[in-house]
Specification:
Strand content: 5-15%
Number of strands: 10
CATH topology of the largest domain: TIM Barrel
CATH architecture of the largest domain: Alpha-Beta Barrel
CATH class of the largest domain: Alpha Beta
Structural class: alpha/beta
Distance between the termini: 32 Å
Number of domains: 2
CATH superfamily of the largest domain: Metal-dependent hydrolases
Helix content: 40-55%
Number of helices: 19
Length: 484
């Protein structure tokens, strides 16, 4: 983001000027709260009970543990990644206060050019991570109670996402029910959870595993330890879109590896998290079995999704349940193959090589390994053709893009088999927004630069956000500033 421009008293911001020329509202799908902890702690204490709350206070918040990752020497010695040591607005102190105070945010929404905003926590990041059932569930319950109570008076313009723990389907369903009872309208899941490998191999393990690896990362879709269909059914029944945001739970493995550079760690990290989760949910058939349920992946851009979609098409074409048999060793004409080796093998096949030896040589040519129990990698998607495969992806996933992300234009590229659905995600309240009042204007710059049409801009800031939020909750905007 660019540094906040100086404005004369009473002068409209660029974003306000942009909003005034639009014929539709602007819906922000991913801004951020900066929580005032003295106001939060009573809710956490009530949810936990005093003994557990005292243990939590001694342990420290998940975000504090992330930010406090040790001295440079300790990080190098222990392999601890460098975190975002300065992660909120500073010089622009008004913006910092705006992220803390919902009343101030609502007062400034005209200046920001935003009519309605969905907000996500900051100090609550990591709350779905602890491998302690009692602590994890109470944390999420306490944070959600705080968000519901604090932001209820501002429901005309704001809503905050409930944090849903996902270690088991039962705890997820319980917190979804709690969030609905609190009146919360959006629910967010973590990018995944660590699971212990039942019997890690010692010595000669797979080269795809880290040395000594004892855990894997479950993203709730393909190969998950649990059947999460009851969770997706509960999202749908209660009128929640599925939204996923990096950092809600455990940091996905192998994203953060530098002990000295946060920028190195952060670049591409959110896209990598959501890439794996979106691929997992799609290939496990979630969009097939729940065709009405929208899935929003946030703060990750959309450029990676363009390659994911096209890569999946190419793999489906060659490895769907019918096409895969073209690659079976059973389909090889061994007599023809040996004959070709004899005829064209001069300089490669040793002279005088017996035919029986050539036949044995030929058997070594195909790259084969132990096949899975099911040969069709795409059986859960169950697409009849490429068009259906693409629709099952493009029509159900929504991709959070920040205002100055020029690659969101890729979502509308004619090179794609189908247009994707980017959604306006301002990220206000975090370090990468140095001026809240510039976000909408920076998105509009893409129109002025010829990267988006006005129709595509409308899809980005209004049509796609509205579609995602109302798909299973038609009354989502009733009583809000954008009801009409």
């Amino acid at each position: 983001m660019t540094r906040r421009p100086m404005r004369e008293p009473g002068e409209a911001s660029r974003s306000q000027s942009v909003r005034e020329q639009l014929t539709h509202p602007v819906i922000d799908c991913d801004g951020h709260v900066q929580e005032y902890l003295p106001a939060v702690e009573p809710f956490l204490r009530e949810a936990m009970g005093q003994p557990l709350f005292d243990r939590y206070r001694q342990r420290g918040t998940e975000m504090a543990r992330i930010l406090g990752s040790g001295s440079p020497a300790e990080r190098m010695r222990h392999g601890l990644p460098q975190s975002a040591w300065w992660a909120t607005p500073a010089r622009n102190t008004l913006d910092l206060a705006t992220a803390v105070l919902p009343r101030l945010l609502v007062e400034r929404m005209g200046e920001l050019g935003i009519d309605f905003a969905v907000l996500y926590g900051s100090k609550s990041l990591g709350s779905a991570a602890p491998d302690d059932d009692e602590l994890r569930q109470a944390l999420c319950r306490g944070w959600n109670s705080f968000y519901a109570e604090t932001y209820r008076p501002f429901a005309r313009h704001l809503t905050v996402a409930a944090i849903i723990p996902m270690h088991t389907p039962a705890e997820a369903i319980a917190e979804l029910e709690h969030a609905k009872a609190l009146g919360l309208k959006v629910a967010v899941i973590p990018e995944g959870v660590y699971r212990r490998i039942p019997e890690p191999l010692a010595g000669h393990a797979s080269p795809f595993l880290m040395p000594g690896q004892t855990h894997w990362f479950d993203t709730f879709g393909l190969d998950s330890t649990h059947d999460y269909d009851p969770v997706w059914a509960t999202f749908e029944r209660l009128g929640f879109a599925v939204t996923a945001h990096g950092g809600i739970g455990q940091i996905a493995p192998n994203n953060f590896t530098s002990t000295t550079s946060y920028s190195y760690n952060h670049i591409g990290a959110l896209a990598e998290k959501m890439y794996h989760q979106a691929k997992s949910l799609f290939m496990s058939g979630v969009t097939r079995r729940f065709p009405q349920l929208p899935i929003g992946v946030l703060e990750c851009g959309v450029n990676w999704a363009t390659t994911l979609m096209t890569d999946m098409v190419e793999h489906w074409e060659k490895r769907n349940g019918t096409a895969i048999h073209e690659l079976s060793p059973d389909a090889i004409d061994w007599s023809l193959l040996v004959g070709l080796l004899e005829k064209h093998g001069e300089g490669l096949v040793p002279e005088g090589r017996h035919r029986a030896d050539l036949e044995a040589d030929a058997r070594l040519l195909p790259a084969t390994g132990a096949p899975p129990a099911h040969l069709d990698d795409w059986r859960f998607v169950d697409a009849a053709d490429e068009h259906e495969l693409v629709s099952l992806f493009a029509d159900h996933f929504y991709f959070g893009c920040e205002a100055d992300d020029r690659t969101l234009a890729f979502a509308f590229s004619p090179a794609l088999p189908k247009t994707l659905r980017p959604i306006f995600s301002s990220d206000i309240g975090h370090w990468d927004v140095t001026d809240m009042a510039s976000t909408l204007a920076e998105a509009w710059d893409l129109v002025e630069d010829g990267l988006l049409t006005q129709e595509q801009f409308r899809a980005f800031v209004h049509d796609n956000p509205r579609s995602m939020l109302t798909a299973v909750a038609p009354d989502f905007f009733v009583g809000t500033a954008v009801e009409a």
